[in-house]
Amino acid sequence: MALSDIQTRIAKEETRMGRTPGSAQLIAVSKVQPLERVVAVLEEGHRVFGENKVQEAAGKWPDLKERFDGVELHLIGPLQTNKTRQAIELFDVIHSVDRPKLARAIARIAEEEGHCPRLFIQVNTGEEDQKAGVLPGDLDELVALCRELKLPIEGLMCIPPSDEEPSLHFALLAKMAKKHGFDGLSMGMSGDFERAIAQGATYVRVGSAIFGEREYG
């Protein structure tokens, strides 16, 4: 499915929900995609991309950012504390703040570097053992710490369980964001981004529907 098709579907859902055009931004998830596919999407004019791993992004995006103006790069995968400095140097937005140790590391290194990416707190709405994200019951405490550290938290992110109705998780995330006064909602992927937009998503993360199936190995 082409980039333009996804953009059209996003715009249609925004209109259906009475939302401002462009209020749901598309993150083209380029992880594990061949370089030529990423370049093709850049050449179509898209500039907002997401990567899951710091190392992969480091090998790809510095050169692409030199070739294409205005790229905004989002880290949407888990962030190891020891990769924090590299992530702060590479990414414009980090969606996976999920624990006090990481929040403190970001605050310390951002102060040393003199700048901080925009940040989202990842919430494990399904309370799944194998998934990153702060548990809903611990969110208040993490938000309070981030505010104490003066981190630029824009909103919340989630990845719903694959075997549950995602709209329930999107609604839960929106409720938690509203409670804490956040406008940003990073939620929705290739199979459910329209349902995420209906629940207020400000960023949707779409990969295979734009680029085709990923090539691993």
Fold and architecture overview:
42% of the residues lie in helices and 16% in strands. The protein is α/β, with parallel strands linked by helices. The protein is globular and about 40 Å long. It starts with a helix and ends in a 6-residue tail after the last helix.
Number of strands: 8
Largest sheet: 8 strands, parallel
- Approximate shape: globular
Helical coverage, percent range: 40-55%
Q: From the helix content, strand content and strand pairing, which structural class follows?
A: alpha/beta
List keywords for this structure.
8-stranded parallel sheet; 8 strands; alpha/beta; 42% helix; 9 helices; 217 residues; single chain
Q: Secondary structure elements and their pairing?
A:
Layout: H1 3-16, E1 25-29, H2 35-43, E2 48-51, H3 54-67, E3 72-75, H4 84-90, E4 93-97, H5 100-113, E5 118-122, H6 139-148, E6 153-157, H7 166-179, E7 184-186, H8 193-198, E8 203-206, H9 208-211
Parallel strand pairs: 1-2, 1-8, 2-3, 3-4, 4-5, 5-6, 6-7
Helix pairs in contact: 4-5
Brief rundown of the structure:
With 217 residues, this protein is α/β, with parallel strands linked by helices.
